[in-house]
Amino acid sequence: MHAWPASEVPALPGKGRDLQIHDTATQGTITLAPGPVARIYVCGITPYDATHIGHAATYNAFDLVQRVWLDTKRQVIYVQNVTDVDDPLLERALRDNQDWTELAERETALFREDMTALRMLPPQHYIGAVEAIPGIVPLVERLRDAGAAYELDGDVYFSVESDPNFGKVSNLDAEAMRLLSAERGGDPDRVGKKNPLDPMLWMAARPGEPSWDGGSLGRGRPGWHIECVAIALDHLGMTFDIQGGGSDLAFPHHEMGASHAQVLTGEFPMAKAYVHAGMVALHGEKMSKSKGNLVFVSALRRAGVDPAAIRLALLSHHYRADWEWTDEVLAEAVARLERWRAAVSRPDGIAADALVEEVREALANDLDAPAALAAVDRWVERQLVSDGDDESAPGLVSRTVDALLGVAL
């Protein structure tokens, strides 16, 4: 599966700072100092209704991670999946009387268009669940043969008790896990499971649903968590730098995936940092497909909204914060974009070397994009009322905003 085209990232003078970021597992801020190659895995979409502002906010956060690392002169290996077969996708296709593969392909294509418009840097490896199945089956067989998985009416489940480190990603108690499992795709009440929290690794073929050859597992399709594990281990290996996604993925998805990988490899942890973006609300409720309270990036673009303004609206909130999308949020972003463009359109201006370092410092501090925006705002305010004589300043500011914030002025 191909990703989307990459926008050029301007080179800035000097060198960026190592990233300090909040780790869900430790509930603290850690400093990530990868070697010459930084590795990140971000969970992708289930392509049945893409791309809403909540998606965009999540991928914006991890785009900033890439930009901070690139500014430190590191290479970045970024991996993202597409869950192009799963119950929600099949249910939507059935509801709308569509072929599920056509639905997945159409929504994935729209997602690519939105990411391109928003100048999100693409993953080097963009992998669909279906194309990953040949690599998933051997992992499930290994878990089963090692006694870490068991069969139940043809389905194969992972035993969470096989991982002594289970629970160290989300740090939730058993009851909280059980409630979230039921809410987020698990089946804790299924009779016959060894532990209510045990997640499915391989679903035996169901009548009328797609299935694939699973070798000794029989025909079926993979569970959600093992999909990402197979892709991550194949392209990044263990103990990569960041496992990322929305905060609703901490449990069960990232918790279960970590346990799968740790049992398979005997290594701990799967990722050095588990990083989660906050949720975006609309009219007081979390934006979600199930509720239908969505604002789509593509709809905003069709309405004539500049993608750079959409991106500034996302950047105006800290990535870990839960916040609400409103007309006022977008209007403020549009006005900010106009001010910034007016400021850098002048032939010369006030020195901007200090601004570059302010933006770097803000982003290195747990991706504090609002602080970075405030720093640019201060320069813009001075630039619009002052008679500077630095001919290089407007261009430097423009390149800084592009390179570190992904906003083209």
Folded structure, characterized:
Helix 10 crosses helix 12 and helix 11 packs parallel to helix 13. The mean pLDDT is 96. The chain has a five-stranded parallel sheet with strand order 5-4-3-10-11, sandwiched between helices. A four-stranded antiparallel sheet has the order 6-7-8-9. The chain has 13 helices and 14 strands. Helices cover 43% and strands 16% of the residues. It has one domain: HUPs (Rossmann fold, 3-Layer(aba) Sandwich). The protein is of the alpha/beta class and 409 residues long.
Quickly list its features.
alpha/beta, Rossmann fold, 409 residues
Topology:
Layout: E1 19-23, E2 28-32, E3 37-42, H1 53-71, E4 75-82, H2 87-95, H3 100-117, E5 125-128, H4 129-145, E6 149-152, E7 155-158, H5 174-183, E8 200-204, E9 220-222, H6 224-235, E10 240-246, H7 250-265, E11 271-277, E12 280-282, E13 285-286, H8 297-302, H9 307-315, E14 323-324, H10 327-344, H11 353-364, H12 369-385, H13 393-405
Parallel strand pairs: 3-4, 3-10, 4-5, 10-11, 12-14
Antiparallel strand pairs: 1-2, 6-7, 7-8, 8-9, 12-13
Helix pairs in contact: 4-6, 6-7, 9-10, 10-12, 11-12, 11-13
N-to-C terminal Cα separation, in Å? 31 Å
Largest sheet report: 5 strands, parallel
* CATH T-level topology: Rossmann fold
Which architecture does the CATH hierarchy give at level 2? 3-Layer(aba) Sandwich
Fraction of residues in H or I helices? 40-55%
Number of strands: 14
Strand order of the largest sheet: 5-4-3-10-11
What's the tally of helices? 13
Give the number of domains.
1
* Element string (H = helix, E = strand): EEEHEHHEHEEHEEHEHEEEHHEHHHH
Q: Which residue ranges are poorly predicted, with pLDDT under 50 across at least 5 consecutive positions?
A: none
Radius of gyration: 22 Å
CATH level-four homologous superfamily name: HUPs
Looking at the structure, what is the overall shape?
globular
- CATH secondary-structure class: Alpha Beta
Strand content: 15-25%
